Amino acid sequence: MIGRFALVLHSHLPWLRGHGRWPVGEEWLNQAIASSYVPVVDTLRRLADAGGRSLVTVGVTPVLAAQLDDPYCLDGTRSWIADWLWRTQELDDPVASRREAAAAQDTLAALEGRYRAGFSPALRDLADAGVIELLSGPASHPFQPLLDERAAAFALRTGLDEHTIRFGAPAAGIWAPECGYRPGLEDLYQRVGIGHFLMDGPTMLHVGRPTHSAWTVGDSDVIAFGRDLEVTYRVWSPRKGYPGHHEYRDFHVVDANGFRTRRVTSAHVHGEDKAPYDEALAAAAVRRDALDFVEVVRTRLLELSAQRPDPLVVAAYDTELFGHWWHEGPAWLEQVLTLLPQAGIEVTTLTGARTAVAGRIGPEPGSWGTGKDFRVWAGPQVADMVDDNEDLVRRWLKLADTAARDPRQVDLATQALLALSSDWAFMVSKDSAAGYARERHDGHHHAFERLAHAIETDRQVDALPERPFPHLDPRLL
């Protein structure tokens, strides 16, 4: 073995249940379940059946895990897939019709069979068998560097409690939302029992620490792993990444019936002028690009071995890249995880890589967002949202101190957590369904305001139906 490779997948969607269907809302969850979560977990099951162990570190945010186990959400996805199956009859291309119908039938069978009770049992089985490591995180995926210390601790403790109850064991590590870091967060992590977390590569490199080692952070015993961008961008890069290769299914070209039946073809060919999707061509591209990635990792490890023995490469991606954005991603993933050991590379989880610690690091603030700083979540385009969140937290903490026994604190904390989700600022900054994001931000703030006013004036108010975190304990605040 020439070195170690750790693949980390970050699975996250904001709370979508009951907040719109199409084009923004529950449709996102339905698509992600059908095109990413089912095929990715199925891929891991097949690798486990073949004897694979310590394959991947999988982060599942508590807010997503709640939806992946929710009967309403699962029923909605089954209905969505049934509609997908029905619409295949309207395709003019018989090859595409058969392909889409077979995919819909297989996915529907999976949701009615092995995922009938949700995804937690399947993920828990894989974790218990040592196939994967599960990461947790703060309950609603807030951008932690901007949060008051008490609010950050509450969000994290709530998320960790939900994870332990859902998966049967505490999480050893977390995916810090947006890879956001500020000095001092490691002390919070240590207090709540977190042993390691992921940091973006530049956050390490800016203070002269390479990503081929793990580092203990500040004065704590908490370990940070850095994302190796040189390797990660072989897949992730919007210009040169594998998903943009001409044989793969084009995500952006959708026909009148909602199907993607074209391949990328060329950056200079658009819309219906793109060539029809060809499964054989795509399968050959998957093999080619899997071999290329393994060689990239191998070459990188050989280079790093001159700097330290037993070097480490960490590559990290959103789970939704595999299958949803990149249709062939799960097949590529399966081949890569099979080929890496054959190339003399040890595949491991973050827990398995904890022996790679080389010393201490004192990082500066950073994230994996644009500019590797906080601008996406704190820039001028979202300044009003930041102000709203700061006002909310101040009022929330005051009510936690003055009206701790009020039973409405559960709903108040729930709305506060949902309002603080990092997704709303991200979507506004990136102009991705920005109107929906502002609507969600405003809606949760208004719900919080109504509850807070009722508590402050000792008036009655109807309980809210949203309970994404059923074990939330407001006393933790």
Can you walk through the features of this model?
The chain is an alpha/beta fold and about 475 residues long. The protein has two domains: about 5-135 and about 170-360, 7-stranded beta/alpha barrel (Alpha-Beta Barrel); about 380-475, immunoglobulin/albumin-binding domain-like. Helices cover about 45% and strands about 10% of the residues. The chain has helices at about 25-50, 60-70, 70-85, 95-110, 120-130, 150-165, 185-190, 200-205, 230-235, 280-305, 330-340, 375-380, 385-400, 410-420, 420-430, 435-455; strands at about 5-10, 55-60, 130-135, 175, 195-200, 215, 225, 310-320, 345-350, 355-360. The longest helix has 26 residues, at about 280-305. It is globular and about 65 Å long.
Can you describe this structure in just a few lines?
Helix content is 47%, strand content 10%. By secondary structure, it is of the alpha/beta class. α3 (71-87) runs antiparallel to α4 (94-112) and α15 (422-429) packs antiparallel against α16.
Keywords:
16 helices, 10 strands, 47% helix, 10% strand, single chain, 477 residues, 2 domains
Mean of residue pLDDT?
Answer: 97
Low-confidence stretches: none
Shape, principal axes of CA atoms: globular
Main sheet record: 5 strands, parallel
**CATH architectural arrangement of the largest domain:** Alpha-Beta Barrel
Give the number of domains: 2
**Percent in strands:** 5-15%
Top-tier CATH class of the largest domain? Alpha Beta
Helix count from the secondary structure assignment? 16
The CATH topology annotation of the largest domain reads as: 7-stranded beta/alpha barrel
Number of strands: 10
Based on the structure, what is the oligomeric state of the protein chains? Answer: single chain
Q: Whole-Å distance between the termini?
A: 47 Å
The string of secondary-structure elements, in order, is: EHEHHHHEHEHEHEEHHEHEEHHHHH
Helix- and strand-based class? alpha/beta
Return Rg in Å: 22 Å
Output the CATH homologous superfamily of the largest domain: Glycoside hydrolase 38, N terminal domain
The proportion of residues forming helix, as a percent range, comes to: 40-55%
